[in-house]
């Protein structure tokens, strides 16, 4: 273990510990804000875990998020709380495996459209089922979970997701993923089992998203399909991960935090112009920061450094 | 009951086919997946609504404004947003992702502008809403007119593409973008034209749809999805494929709504689409456009 590695680990633990102590000082509004932010950070990390290296633009985020939330709502009176999260995670895993097996050979725009269609299909089916079979559209969730409890769970999930994406980026799996992202033909020729790697990552990222939905669900008290499966969640996650840079460890966090605060402020102050601004941000990111803000900053530094060095030599 | 269902299915399918033709031109020739396509449709629908409600101008005349308007809008979108991306792109995959994200942004911008201008309410207007007796069943005259307009416009586009030199050049780019320059075709110009033509068809489709359906500022996404489903089912760039798949989807939706459950029409659409994507991602009728 190098000193740098130890430093990084202790910094990570210190940050998590500091964040864990936050609810002792923060106001109820602060906790609500932090829950929303952590939720998006976890979603963005989960999204980037799969989509960053493979470059598959997925809009299925809300499908898994919604499955988590809905599982929580449906079983909230039958199952004990920890079991509830486990069941939600398992359902998310099951759906991800089925969908992954069927779709990961689709590429590019087909995958984008498929994942968007999947989320809409699930929403339509849940709506239809609730209206025609159970007879009610909405469900109430009464669970003995405090906002602090939700916050700590989300923090633990986010920390675990971050640690996983760090571990993967340093492992053979991470290397395999990078090769797949660069060139699938080369990857398969070097003996990488492309389908298995992609499927595993897709499932892992889906479980994280499902858990975010399941953990956050008690905050709403009332859920219906249009809330749980709101496609905006997919769009926001996508744009957050892209802004920070989906290929960087810190990228999703650096994208999610400022954008979450921005959108929170926008929806409070400019509710009518929300989607115009969202769209303009999308376009700006593609044109100005195609590889994310981290990459942009590093390239900026790299451009400046060679100028600085010769000056030092002359001294 | 069956005749009514088949007739309304054909009306719906005809409009869908018209919408899908525009998208298949944009995606097949310009190679840009325009996710804001449905927003163009809704803009035209609102234009037609506003002209009819506030100025008493009939939707048939609105078409004369919508067609060139859509053309100019499509031309401008390609020139301002897409062309820089095409020039910057290192390969087809990165262009695809960039264009998807940009048109996504455009989708939100247009949707937001519509929401601010017209609000989020369901909108419709009553034009030629009298029943006409046809094949022993009654059909609203506006639906019949919609079908006729879709057929006329679709046939016109088909003839332009297959019978003129200009159309042949466009199809050449769709089939072999790499070889087209060898015979003196300006590929970028062809792409711009195809994108603009697609915009014109979207606008025309929007006017036609607004005559017999209610719409909201946010229903563009549904139309984009439906057009996409038809394009992929018919085979990308395949005009006749789009026509047949459009009619098929219209019929399938009406049948499900009539005989199963109206609440399941959208689910049918997506289910059908997912099935086609998995079973035959190249489309039911293949990709070729000869």
Structure description:
The complex is a heterodimer of chains A (315) and B (290). Chain A has 315 residues and is mainly alpha-helical. Chain A has one domain. In chain A, 80% of the residues lie in helices and 1% in strands. Chain A has 14 helices and two strands; from the N terminus they run αααααβααααβααααα. Chain A has helices spanning 3-21, 28-54, 61-75, 81-103, 108-134, 147-170, 172-182, 184-189, 194-220, 225-228, 232-244, 251-269, 274-288, 293-314, and strands at residues 139-140, 222-223. The longest helix of chain A is centred in the N-terminal third of the chain and has 27 residues, at 28-54. Mean pLDDT of chain A is 84; it is low at 308-315. In chain B, strand 1 (131-134) and strand 2 form a beta hairpin. Chain B has helices at 2-28, 37-55, 59-88, 92-118, 141-163, 165-175, 187-212, 220-234, 239-260, 265-279, and strands at residues 131-134, 137-140. Chain B has one domain: Orthogonal Bundle (ABC transporter involved in vitamin B12 uptake, BtuC). Chain B is built from ten helices and two strands, in the order ααααββαααααα. Chain B is globular. The longest helix of chain B has 30 residues, at 59-88. Chain B starts with a helix and ends in an 11-residue tail after the last helix. With 290 residues, chain B is mainly alpha-helical. Helix content of chain B is 74%, strand content 3%. Chain A binds chain B through residues 55, 57, 102-103, 106-110, 112-114, 116-118, 120-121, 124-125, 127-128, 131-132, 231, 235, 242, 272-287, 290, and chain B through 33, 81, 84-85, 93, 96-98, 100-102, 104-113, 115-116, 221, 225, 228, 232, 261, 263-264, 266-267, 270-271, 273-274, 277-278, 281.
């Amino acid at each position: 273990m190098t000193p740098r590695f130890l430093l990084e680990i202790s910094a990570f633990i210190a940050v998590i510990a500091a964040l864990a102590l936050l609810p002792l000082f923060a106001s109820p509004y602060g906790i609500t804000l932090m829950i929303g932010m952590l939720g998006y950070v976890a979603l963005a990390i989960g999204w980037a875990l799969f989509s960053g290296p493979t470059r598959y633009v997925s809009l299925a985020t809300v499908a898994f998020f919604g499955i988590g939330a809905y599982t929580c709502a449906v079983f909230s009176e039958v199952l004990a709380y920890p079991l509830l999260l486990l069941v939600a995670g398992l359902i998310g895993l099951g759906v991800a495996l089925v969908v992954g097996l069927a779709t990961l050979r689709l590429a590019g725009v087909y995958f984008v459209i498929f994942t968007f269609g999947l989320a809409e299909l699930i929403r339509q089916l849940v709506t239809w089922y609730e209206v025609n079979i159970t007879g009610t559209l909405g469900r109430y969730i009464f669970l003995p979970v405090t906002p602090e409890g939700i916050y700590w769970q989300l923090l633990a999930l986010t920390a675990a997701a971050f640690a996983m994406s760090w571990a993967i980026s340093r492992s053979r799996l991470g290397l395999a993923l990078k090769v797949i992202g660069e060139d699938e033909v080369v990857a398969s020729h070097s003996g990488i089992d492309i389908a298995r790697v992609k499927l595993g990552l897709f499932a892992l990222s889906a479980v994280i998203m499902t858990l975010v939905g399941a953990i956050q669900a008690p905050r709403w008290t009332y859920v219906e399909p249009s809330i749980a499966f709101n496609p905006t969640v997919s769009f926001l996650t996508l744009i957050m991960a892209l802004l920070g840079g989906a290929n960087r460890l810190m990228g999703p966090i650096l994208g999610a935090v400022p954008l979450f605060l921005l959108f929170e402020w926008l929806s409070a102050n400019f509710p009518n112009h929300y989607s115009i601004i969202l769209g303009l941000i999308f376009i700006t990111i593609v044109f100005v920061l195609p590889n994310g803000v981290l990459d942009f900053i590093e390239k900026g530094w790299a451009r400046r450094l060679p100028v600085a060095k010769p000056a030092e030599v002359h001294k | 009951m069956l005749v009514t269902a088949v007739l309304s299915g054909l009306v719906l399918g005809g409009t869908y086919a018209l919408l899908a033709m525009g998208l298949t031109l944009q995606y097949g020739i310009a190679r840009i997946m325009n996710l804001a396509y449905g927003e163009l449709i809704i803009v035209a629908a609102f234009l037609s609504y506003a002209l009819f409600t506030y100025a008493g101008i009939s939707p048939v005349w609105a078409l004369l404004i919508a067609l060139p308007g859509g053309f100019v809008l499509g031309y401008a979108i390609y020139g301002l947003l897409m062309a820089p991306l095409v020039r910057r792109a290192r390969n087809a995959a990165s262009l695809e992702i960039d264009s998807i994200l940009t048109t996504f942004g455009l989708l939100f911008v247009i949707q937001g502008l519509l929401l601010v201008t017209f609000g989020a309410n369901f909108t419709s207007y009553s034009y030629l809403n009298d029943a006409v007796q046809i094949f022993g069943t009654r059909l609203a005259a506006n639906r019949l007119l919609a079908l006729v307009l879709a057929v006329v416009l679709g046939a016109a586009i088909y003839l332009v593409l297959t019978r003129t030199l200009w159309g042949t050049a466009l199809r050449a780019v769709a089939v072999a973008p790499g070889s087209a320059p060898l015979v003196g075709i300006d590929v970028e110009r062809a792409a711009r034209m195809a994108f603009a033509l697609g915009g014109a068809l979207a606008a025309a489709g929007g006017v036609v749809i607004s005559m017999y359906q209610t719409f909201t500022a946010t229903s563009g996404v549904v139309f984009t999805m439906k057009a996409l489903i038809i394009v992929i089912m018919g085979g990308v760039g395949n005009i006749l494929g789009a026509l047949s798949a459009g009619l098929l989807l219209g019929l399938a939706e009406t049948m499900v709504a009539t005989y199963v459950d109206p609440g399941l029409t959208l689910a049918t659409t997506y289910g059908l689409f997912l099935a086609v994507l998995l079973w035959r991602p190249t489309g039911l009728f293949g990709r070729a456009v000869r």
